[in-house]
Design brief:
With 263 residues, this protein is an alpha/beta fold. The chain is built from nine helices and eleven strands.
């Protein structure tokens, strides 16, 4: 049984659909895990939510989508708890426009309440329910899967949700040696240089594996299969690339392959 793990999507629906099509996944035996951040920045956030939601509904035993900090920010906005989702750097303004058909118009408190009502009425109820029910982590025989990272020395069930959604901790990136942990959230160009796998764009250091390969025009959307360490990537221009990663795999991750009978 394999696990296919997809990094942060951020509204890139065309790349997502191309990626799903190219995966050699047996839906009866293989698991598909999305690390969260389906929305914001890209051209079709609603399409990403719709397609991932349907995959989860059609095969709930084998398809898992985690909660990302961007889904959390949207829900916090709808619930009136925070407005950070609409700051330009986040990219929520694009998702707001894609769902409502209109751009956010001001940041005055009275208008913020109107925008909340506008968004909540425009987002399909099933999309909001789907995002509200997304789990903070997933675990199988191969690895632990989280959006951002783990509190030091703690299993995700003992970690704070804030850490699982938002953490950027250099000590975790450089020194984590527990059960393999696959995460997104932090684009790999921002992770420690030692651990970045060159042109592949992903990050591997000891037991930490980073799959957020960015959301620029030239950035690939990436999926890693475990325990083989095959990498699948799609680009905005339609290119598709596949690599079998055999070098730079730390001993902690080779042990996972040995347990699976691959070495």
């Amino acid at each position: 049984m394999k696990t296919f793990v997809v990094g942060d999507i951020h509204g890139r629906c065309a790349q997502l659909l191309n990626l799903i099509d190219m995966l050699p996944r047996d839906p009866e035996t293989d698991t598909l895990v999305f690390l969260g951040d389906l929305i914001d920045r890209g051209a079709d956030a609603p399409g990403c939510v719709e397609n991932v939601m349907k995959l989860c509904q059609e095969n709930p035993e084998r398809v898992v989508c985690l909660r990302g900090n961007h889904e959390q920010m949207l829900m916090d906005f709808v619930d009136g708890e925070a407005t950070i989702w609409l700051t330009p750097v986040v990219g929520g303004q694009r998702t707001f426009e894609q769902y409502t058909g209109q751009a956010p118009w001001t940041d005055h408190d009275i208008d913020l309440e109107e925008m909340r009502r506008t968004l909540e009425s425009a987002v399909p109820t099933e999309h909001l329910l789907f995002m509200r029910n997304l789990p903070f982590y997933y675990e199988d025989d191969h690895a632990i899967y989280v959006h951002a990272g783990l509190d030091e020395g703690k299993h995700p069930r003992e970690s704070e949700p804030l850490s699982l959604l938002w953490m950027r901790n250099m000590d975790f990136y450089k020194n984590y040696r527990g059960k393999p942990c696959v995460f997104g959230h932090t684009p790999t160009p921002l992770l420690p240089l030692r651990g970045r796998l060159g042109r592949h764009g992903i990050y591997i250091s000891h037991s930490a594996v980073g799959l957020d390969t960015g959301c620029e025009r030239q950035s690939p959307l990436s999926c890693l299969s475990l325990p083989e360490f095959n990498l699948y990537q799609t680009y905005a221009d339609g290119r598709e690339e596949t690599y079998q990663i055999t070098s730079f795999i730390p001993d902690t991750l080779r042990e996972m392959q040995r347990r699976a009978g691959l070495t």
